[in-house]
Amino acid sequence: MTGDVLTFTDKGIYCPSGDFYIDPWRPVPRALITHGHADHARAGHGSYLATDLAAPVLKFRLGNIPLQTVPYGQTVMVGSAAVSFHPAGHVPGSAQIRVEVGGEVWVVSGDYKTEDDGLSTAFVPLPCHAFISECTFGLPVFRWAQQTEIAAEISDWWKGCAAQGRTAVLGCYSLGKAQRLLSMLDPCQGPILCHAAIEGTNDVLRGQGLPLHQTTRATAEVSAKTHPGALLLAPPSAMAGTWLRRFGPVSTAFASGWMALRGVRRRRAADRGFIISDHADWSGLNTAIDATGAERVFVTHGYTDVFSRWLTSRGIDAQIVPTQFGEIEDDTQTPPQNEPSA
Ligand SMILES: [Zn+2]
Ligand SMILES: [Zn+2]
């Protein structure tokens, strides 16, 4: 469609006026990046633009990339497009990207959540003509409890594990969720251990001033014997196999929005599931979209069919656009199409 601020191509979301892509999945000359999760930030682009808060993680994950940074809220001209990054509340440094051309404003949400997690800069709704939104959890069944409630549940579970002489092993994604969980836990309750993949990310974020508790890297010398009563944060990939043995006996849990679906809980074979996500739930998606005032909404990943039909029924011009977001890492590691509708 000529004249649109952004178009949808097989490489990613493209801005003709600025000749750049947003979170492209194929190599391009100029990429604007919303955040460091692997489905949004990929290697191989000619140049990168992201927030200064996202930069350390991007470099940690992608190496020495040609990266320019900009603080939240500052407008930069890219070609004839005015571009600015604004908090998305998803993970530390994550952004929505606002693009204005000739008075027409389009916003790309990236991944976002509306609850303030106290660690990521809180989501800011941006008035716009067109909003490009994720809808990972775009079904009414997804309703998140307050973070404080989940914190109490996790704390009780950890206490119970310690009383039984078990290590409490909590599966979570290494960027965002792990640090959020850390900030919710009381380090006086017992030792907190982190798998190397998580502790590496913790160190990067500590280095940029994020207030994270001291944690212990779960090196080969660290075990249930050296740290009885511990809580261990581990990425999903480390939850199966021999790595966990030295922490035994263990009790296992996952912290993910997908834990709201019984089928996923069962397949994960964890003892517990804590329903907490860095993506907006049903009401968060609706609140965020309403706040933009956008007459056009493009949904990129998640329950796009159901959610776009819902938006259409509410009088919004809603369309599904195919992307490769949500296919690797972060909460979307469990693709919705494989799940039973709950
Ligand atoms: Zn993400
Ligand atoms: Zn994503």
UniProtKB/TrEMBL annotation:
Keywords: Exonuclease, Hydrolase, Ligase, Nuclease. The keyword Nuclease applies. SUPFAM superfamilies: Metallo-hydrolase/oxidoreductase (SSF56281). InterPro entries: MBL, RibonucZ/Hydroxyglut_hydro, Xnuc_lig_assoc. GO terms for molecular function: exonuclease activity; ligase activity; RNA endonuclease activity. Its EC number is 3.1.-.-. Signal peptide: none annotated. PANTHER family: BLL1145 PROTEIN, CLEAVAGE AND POLYADENYLATION SPECIFICITY FACTOR FAMILY MEMBER. This is Ligase-associated DNA damage response exonuclease.
